[in-house]
């Protein structure tokens, strides 16, 4: 099977060449003694602990018995993407997320795409994430997924060249953006010289864009909209991120108990009495939002919230019912959505997918399970899946019966050889599999910061990047070419070598 | 701001302050226990620590006798004791974590670092090697916590609720300390007759002063030998003594005024009245009516203020 590494032009690394956009970084890396890198890694860990960038693990205790908070391992080596590759990906992301939002709107209104015979009606009706409560409900700008996390992997095509594929769309409450921001902060703190030497596109304005998106998602009747972040509370595994985003945006971080609904308006309890809330960036799943409509015993949400929402007195971001579009059974239809709603060819590729609900596909999957990745349609977090090549015969046999019993619940994909990126592990620098989650913001316009969160499977050979299963993260660099914006201090050495001609021609043509 | 946020900030400060005062008390006892004195007197000191926090029954549920090791274990790292230093620091950090977004980065990191470090400081054997260093550390973390609040936080409601917590807790703790220490001396606390008694008195009163960092202050203010009624005056009535009741109430009233809302007028009035009594009080009057009675009703009123602040701001009914 072909392999693709982001930095080296072949595996193993010994004697391999360096890809163009990694060359400057490689020159720097070659000068770093291993002990320095090790001590930097310890420093990073200490800072992450102090800052409290942790996630909760239930039932676990650390060596001091201090409880249940864990760090997500941070890798010191950045993942680098050249700016032109990113530009193409960004276009593809805007297109894809726009189509997905059109799809959700369509599903809760006229269902044109079903009438056109593109998506089967039972795929909608039988979908646990379809919320009949949302039929006919208007949302601002017709945008349902305001914050979308699109998981992208790179795998070699038949010629061994790297190709990007969308692995999954996350349109409910995608998380991880705080790690993107903290990883960058950490890299700049540990290795400031790298940012002087390389033109890395900044990401720190994400909270600004997010706030802008949330404010632009308010109904026009709210002139100065009050935005809040709704968290399930401090024991939620993503609590750090909720608190971080609220703080960075300068808005209140609320829990369900802080909210109440009166006359179909939502208020929060403050030290100066009730205060109206216009936009809720919720990090609570649909099921827990309103005990009046969804799970009756939920205390994470707020009674009457759906009434206020339907009455157009509050905006919930992401909208209720977006899960209908990010489920693995709908995923295979996304390229067709792009064509149907936008009349365009999809820029981003899907991974070829067999839908076990279809007889032919099922037969193929059952017969070729050892070569496939089989996923539960509603599964998440790397659970409920079988990675054929890594599974024992017994596991495959067992899973075959599971799929046979409920074919609707499964899809299968070829085992992609996810690209690897050099990663600093105990034995030194070694290839580990990675993916990328850019965060796409939609309101009146669709925008994002360059890059996203790169997750890395730290176990040798592992393809699972989820933090709950031993995944770590890396800083992600979108690398601008040299001299694009005229000279800076670091371009001096280059202009000496190249006579400065390059930056001048470019600035003339710009 | 959110009532829940205010509540967490208020309690974060209260627990931090409580941990500090407990450390102060234990430290002074620990230091005085190294002086040549009768076992009875030392015993009295450790007993006092438990009485101040009303923890005698809880202590005896786990220990047979009052020993320095037993009391320190119980008051420092027994997590089943909600008033132990570890419990207070944990509660402070949990409250901070619940509202970390309302704190400045420095403020949050200070709380979090305290928590990460206390687990290391209390590893078996470590604390026993040098209890004094640990108590010193707790005090410093508390100083740092207050300092970082003052030095970095916007002086908005979040700030005022945090300060309210600090000073309401301090008023309570100082009042308890004075009450128990004076009570321990029984009716004899005015005027020792023998030389031996005088010497004992000196250590007793100077220990109280040291536990509130007041020994040097006393000398500076009174330029005199240590006399109990002046110790009482310093800790109750001096507005410029940062750990006195008067100073604490002054801060309570100030901060309460800044966060006033539609329903808090009565709370502010009561706090103001209590402050006025301290402002215009005289130590001979207080002693004439009985120090213990005076402090008991002071504690009741501080307690009541705490309840009213909760009602008015922190867990409002709708």
Summary tags:
heterodimer; A: 510 residues; alpha+beta; Dna Ligase, domain 1; 3 domains; 5-stranded mixed β-sheet; 31% helix; B: 318 residues; mainly alpha; 2 domains; 16 helices
Q: How much beta of chain A, percentage-wise?
A: 15-25%
Radius of gyration of chain B: 20 Å
Shape of chain B: globular
Low-confidence regions of chain A:
62-66, 486-510
Number of helices of chain B: 16
Which H/E pattern describes the elements of chain B? HHHHHHHHHHHHHHHH
Summed over residues and divided by their number, the pLDDT of chain B gives a mean of 90
Query: How many structural domains can be distinguished in the coordinates of chain A?
Result: 3
**Sheet with most strands of chain A:** 5 strands, mixed
The Cα radius of gyration of chain A reads 24 Å
Please count the beta strands of chain B (DSSP E, at least 2 residues each).
Answer: 0
| Largest contact between chains | A-B, 28 and 32 residues
Question: What is the helical fraction of chain B, as a range of percent?
Answer: over 70%
Class derived from helix and strand content of chain B: mainly alpha
Number of domains of chain B: 2
Main sheet summary of chain B = none
Detail the poorly predicted runs of chain B: none
Compact overview of the structure:
The complex is a heterodimer of chains A (510) and B (318). With 510 residues, chain A is of the alpha+beta class. Chain A is built from 16 helices and 23 strands.
